[in-house]
Design goal:
There is one protein chain. This protein is mainly alpha-helical and 92 residues long. It has a domain at 2-61: Orthogonal Bundle (Arc Repressor Mutant, subunit A), CATH 1.10.10.10. The protein is 45% helix and 11% strand.
Length: 92
């Protein structure tokens, strides 16, 4: 779900927190660090405010596009059963 939201927008940590309320802070921080270590996401300065940090996908994740598309589809189909409402992003 984190990758889906990063694909749709440039969220700050608090924005991701609000989008995935059932995920604990600890797990969200760990997953974001995992994504950064894997080179799939990075923290960067926001486009409108250099003082605010946002998360975005990296170019490296493009190699995963087919896999991510399948995950996005699965997530969109599965989300309602776990109490989430998700808009599936358009193709990469």
């Amino acid at each position: 779900m984190i990758l889906t939201y990063l694909k749709e927008r440039l969220p700050r940590y608090g924005g991701l927190r609000a989008l995935i309320p059932k995920l604990s802070d600890k797990v969200l921080r760990e997953r974001l660090l995992d994504l950064e270590e894997l080179g799939l996401a990075k923290r960067t300065h926001g486009p409108d405010d250099e003082r605010r940090m946002v998360y975005e996908l990296t170019k490296r994740r493009k190699a995963l596009s087919p896999t991510l598309e399948a995950l996005y589809s699965w997530g969109g189909n599965t989300a309602p059963s776990v109490g989430l409402r998700v808009r599936i992003p358009e193709s990469t």
